[in-house]
Amino acid sequence: MSEQQANGEEEKRKFALQRIYLKDASFESPGSPNSFRVDWKPNVNLELNSKNENLEGGDLWDVVLGLTITAKNEDDEVVYLIEVQQAGIFHISGFDTESVAHTLGSFCPSVLFPYAREVVDSLVVKGSFPPLMLAPVNFDAIYEQSQVAQARRENNIQ
Q: Is 146 in contact with 139 (CB distance < 8 Å)?
């Protein structure tokens, strides 16, 4: 392939963030105010999920990163429960199907995560609990694991 052809193909590829928005957020503290009266040694659990939808069959994609954070005290009682759906609209064109899937499953959630992390921290602090700064997440590794798991399921079904 000539250099001119390679440059032409690169120019056709487009990835652009159109909008980032908070789709849904909830904070529950079922044990308050009693949960403020015990020593703060929580067990925090984070669940992540991601879904995407093609908008109008074109090059626009709506990607939603879902986070569920459950903090429990030593007695295994829920201190707080947070659910956040951070979303973004992305323009993706000129990529092959596999590259689009990887972008939607890994890169887009990586873009959305810092925004979701800020929402979580803000909700925790507004609930009068110590700040919670979630550690960075390797969405490439999560995507790879999901691809391996999907391949295993497909092989077991057939």
A: no
